[in-house]
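Annex B. Sample input.
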Amino acid sequence: MSQHPAVAVLGLGAMGHAFAANLLKNGFSTSGWNRTKSRGDDLKAAGLTLANSPQQAVEQAGVVITMLADAATTESVLEQASSALKNGAIVVQMGTIGVEATEKLIGFFAERRPDVVFIDAPVSGTKTPAENAQIVVLASGDRQRAAAVEPVFAAISKATKWLGAAGSASKMKLVVNAWLISMVQGLSESMQMAKEFGFTSDDLWSVLEGGPLAVPYASAKLEMMKEGRYDPQMQLTWALKDARLALSAAKDSELPGLRLIADVWQEAVNAGYGENDLSVVYHYLSEKTL
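Annex B, continued. Sample output.
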């Protein structure tokens, strides 16, 4: 008999689907809910219980994971599910919803369901790392009361970084994503220069490889630029959302570069590239120079 807690995953998009699949592989009793129910059909054979509502999904779960599109959706779904949560359940909010929405949810559970442990735990990593359980969980909240979540994190990630009181992880996630967004923009601009000067993406990587600037993530994005293939690991639309969340939260920081990037990426989204991987910004910028 499994000693793992039963887990509910609310949101079976690219990331939530990967979480549910890895939990099932590791022997967790797992239920799932998604607004478009068919998103979980392929996991039913592996043991996923597909629920008709958030309330139904969480009623037997000791740990509830949310990985939903945005703050408004996350708030709405958790409000619906709150009355059906088991006494002492652990709610783990893993989407990138920003500081303000996270603080609102912390207050909501403190007032409505103080028996529930709310863990703020966005992740560093995208679709393929999530599928391979290679993401890093940035967790914050009462770790002692949330001990049952540790094997859940172990099943879906390669590491967990605990960062203090609930809300701290969402702040760190915005810091990490600001760095990632700046890196992709810088790589796109550098690759444009390289092309103009007669170099290929392979030439650029051959210079970077083995040195301190050889970030594996950059290698993967250069490969996408080389092939002109932008299957979304992280959609440009969601990356832009994260940039806006960072700009909104960091009220006392000077972030002129991030502001400019957000404006450029908004143009790219408006031009129809939003559902592509964020590295498509290279293609967008290249088209502008023609």
